[in-house]
């Protein structure tokens, strides 16, 4: 009974745990139904000796619930962290492992954050997900870790981001690509 | 922040609920309630305890068949806690050895020599939960937990602050989980500071969540 829960508690959010979750919920349903019938029997048939058993099932139900909720909550915390660490568009591979409800939650969270950011800093708003580390200069040296393609800089010119090429680019344009692992920030 | 909350009663209630909720959901508190406290050092789900007073279990596939009154069983902490009551109608709990007088004496002699990881990786957390079972030794147990921690803390703090870029497995081998968490916190502080000294504090880095994820194999990627 507890073993599925153990695996889930220690397993990462990436793994699709739908099966484990379903098993736990099924077990909870079975426990609950057994308890219902025993409680009725205890009350009407005067079988007080069933009470420890009922208590035992009840403890198991509470335990299963706590583990399930904690697991789902932990996933949510990681999804929330993704918005800050990665950006507002998640890669397909990650999305594949999220449930529809989690995606919905992520979208709500994105929206709340965006609304909040717009309310700061006067008319334009303020992107607080930028400059998470204190910037030392406007332009930074970056090396490309993967082939990315054309990348347009503010003044209209574009740069070809090919693996291992190095460029000197504005920090605010590169930040997201660095976080996504496409570029690497090179310290001089 | 705390003072502000207590001014308003409804906010106070929210604060209490929130605090309890966070503990309820924290994975480390949940795992602690499942752990072994036996000296075999196994990491399975049972915790050694108790003497059943009047257990009656109709045959259910979960655990055991009809424990006889007076029999001794091992149960997970969460289950024992749920079934326990002051009148000991269902079960009574026997303290694991490591919280008993003999071991408490060892700890008071020199807390640093003990391998707390082997003694059940959640020594402090589990010990705190044990207090729930109203043992007459509770006062001594809590004192022992506290003094043991105080005795060991200094060494953990010092070692975590001085081990930079080296293999720390020897340092953490004999620490329980809570102490390991402390050690890690100390290491993080040390590493962050060293990084700052090297000018890395302004270096943008890739998202660690995605880095770890990409290390596992999967088919679809954005490029």
Automatic annotation (TrEMBL), chain A:
KW Transmembrane (keyword) present: no
Domain GINS subunit: 36-120
Gene3D superfamilies for this protein: 1.20.58.1030
GO cellular component: GINS complex
Subcellular location: Chromosome; Nucleus
This protein's UniProt keywords: Chromosome, DNA replication, Nucleus
Main localization (coarse): nucleus
Domain DNA replication complex GINS protein PSF1 C-terminal residues, every copy: 136-187
Highest taxon, organism lineage: Eukaryota
UniProt xrefs under InterPro entries: GINS_A, GINS_bundle-like_dom_sf, GINS_Psf1, PSF1_C
One BP annotation, GO: DNA replication
Pfam families in the record: PSF1_C, Sld5
Cited PANTHER family: DNA REPLICATION COMPLEX GINS PROTEIN PSF1, PARTNER OF SLD5
Assembly: Component of the GINS complex which is a heterotetramer of GINS1, GINS2, GINS3 and GINS4. Forms a stable subcomplex with GINS4. GINS complex interacts with DNA primase in vitro. Component of the CMG helicase complex, a hexameric ring of related MCM2-7 subunits stabilized by CDC45 and the tetrameric GINS complex.
Family statement: Belongs to the GINS1/PSF1 family.
Role this protein plays: Required for correct functioning of the GINS complex, a complex that plays an essential role in the initiation of DNA replication, and progression of DNA replication forks. GINS complex is a core component of CDC45-MCM-GINS (CMG) helicase, the molecular machine that unwinds template DNA during replication, and around which the replisome is built.
Protein name: DNA replication complex GINS protein PSF1
Organism of provenance: Equus caballus
Gene transcribed to yield this protein: GINS1
From TrEMBL, chain B:
Alphabetized CDD domains for the sequence: GINS_A_psf3
Main location: nucleus
Keywords from the UniProt entry: DNA replication, Nucleus
Task of the protein: The GINS complex plays an essential role in the initiation of DNA replication.
PANTHER family: DNA REPLICATION COMPLEX GINS PROTEIN PSF3 (PTHR22768)
Subunit structure, interactors included: Component of the GINS complex.
Protein name, as recorded: DNA replication complex GINS protein PSF3
Organism whose genome encodes this protein: Equus caballus
Lineage: Eukaryota, Metazoa, Chordata, Craniata, Vertebrata
Gene: GINS3
